[in-house]
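User: For a benchmark we're assembling, each entry needs the component sequences followed by a predicted structure for the full assembly. Here are entry 17's components. Please fill in the structure.
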Amino acid sequence: MIERFLAWLGETPWSVALLESLYAWPLVESTHVLTLGLFVGCTIMMDLRLTGLAFRNVPVRSFTGRLLPWTHAGFVVMTVTGLLLFYSQPLRYYHNVFFRVKVLVMVAAGINAFVFHRGTHRRASDWGSDAVPPRAARVAGAVSLTAWALVVVAGRLIAYNWFDCDIQPQPGWVNWLAGCEAVTE
Amino acid sequence: MLEPFFRWCESTLIGRAVADSVWAFPILEAVHLLGLCLLGGALLVVDLRMLGVGLTGQPVSRLARHARPWLVAALVVMVATGIPLFLSEAIKAYYNTSFWVKMTTLPVALGFTFGVRERVARDEGMEPGPRCRAIGAVSLALWFTVAAAGRWIGFS
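Assistant: Structure for entry 17:
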């Protein structure tokens, strides 16, 4: 079902035009990459504060409060450009091992951020001025740093077709992870 | 004129090792990107503040002091991964306009960051003046050009 939808999506005129365009695709991709500096960059800075590794005498609340709007702006650009890139080649990305890993880790990073903002961050008025935040905040920061680093690495590796379904034979676990059965059937 | 030097670069042990390996180039590229993320964060925190936005609750000098080691670390990562990436395809780089745009703006950006921005940010407090704002804007523009040209090397 998903397969058929993505196959149809990839054959829509705009998808074909985007993939085959001389400048549009590279521009969208470049925007996606350069916005990393804004989105992941700001995220790293907040995480460094949360782990107590940097900006120790800057209160957490004012640090995150003033950086979050920029992070959100970066996230919007990343999402829009990322969806456009996906739209240019939906079926290929859907069966790309690195893309799948990237999406899973992004979900994990999202849950981590959500839990932190719902819990520990709400009580930041109690600990926000501590040079080294409490354990829960440090863990949230470390998880976020690790997760986004993995997302960036996996994202970059999507460009490589090493594990694509049309390149066989592959180890069983690769075909399982890439969902290749559905293609060969 | 410089072409023989670029040919030599590509023939170096590191250049050939990266070019011959399946994984080396992608992994170096990925780490180069991680460096870009750190660089972006370390620059933006200070540049935005110099422009009068972002972390407006803190003096410019404090943010610049805290961000500095991360800025340097990011640059070290970028250079350490950028050199082997370059060595593996030096001849392609030689004929690549984006590469030359990057290599001319990079020293300017580095000189501006450590020669001008650093000095001004060190003494700047809560109310950045027009000069401080201009420096923040120039810094962002310079590093944006370096990054954009860098990305475009792969497309041209």
